[in-house]
Amino acid sequence: MVRRQNLNAILEMIESSANLEEIGEVLAQFRNLLEVDHAFYRWVDRSGSISGCSTLPVAWQDRYSAMGYHRIDPVVIGCYTTFHPVDWRDLDWSARLAAAFRKDSLAFGVGSQGYSVPVRGPAGQYAVFSITKTCKGEVWDKFTRKHSRDLILVAHYVNRRALDFEMSFYPLPEQPLSMRESEALSLLAEGMSRARAAEAMDISEHTLRVYIEGARSKLQAQNTTHAVAGAVTMGLIGA
Q1: Looking at the domain assignment, is residue 172 inside a domain?
Q2: Rounded to two decimals, what is the model's pTM?
Q3: Cβ atoms of 112 and 135 closer than 8 Å
């Protein structure tokens, strides 16, 4: 995992970003911190078009858009059917168009390995946060095991901040969960005890309780289990 103070700094910068371009600048810092090739966030809107922020080469971003690759991209398609992180090796690249797309992406330096976190928000909003790295399989396995939790957390922070910029398309609830409330429920959704969740967030159990109670109130939940289930159902946190 990334050192907690470094991760907190990344999360705070995401929260204070004024637009998607600034989030992209934060992703560049996150990429350097993890020593990966690229980090990018893609928002798929109701019409099926793509927007977001990225450290990918501009030439590849332009080509991706011009070729309409989002319509055949196995990452975009494969992540749509799951709430859980996806290793690109587990996706179906066998189709002719998918194989050609993969070959093209490698030529532009996207990276030989990839890991994506699907994220869902209010009103059916769907996005994917991904990182890529050129390395061997065993190195990648170790990397994803070590950093998966951090990647899920950053994905949700990026998505929630992006929602602030797209209110006209996907209105948030009247009382949206704060970043820390979402993080608390996400950790509990992973099966963590309150003690472990508080440790992961680097806060006291009392402070964790405050975040949970705040989330319960906003979600009008009868108990913590109800709050977690409600947040997952509404797409506010991952399953």
Answers
A1: no
A2: 0.70
A3: yes
What CATH number is attached to the domain comprising 60?
3.30.450.80
Under 8 Å CB-to-CB from 120, ≥6 apart: which residues?
83, 126, 127, 235, 238
Tell me, yes or no, whether 20 and 90 share the same domain.
yes
First-to-final CA distance of the chain: 20
pLDDT in tens, 133-191: 999 999 999 999 999 999 999 999 999 898 888 654 444 445 788 889 989 998 998 88
Bridge partners (DSSP) of residue 51 are 43
Contact partners, residue 89, CB within 8 Å, separation at least 6: 113, 137
Q: Is 142 helix (H, G, I), strand (E, B) or coil?
A: helix
| 141 and 221 share one domain | no
**What's the CA gap between 132 and 147, in Å, rounded?**
13
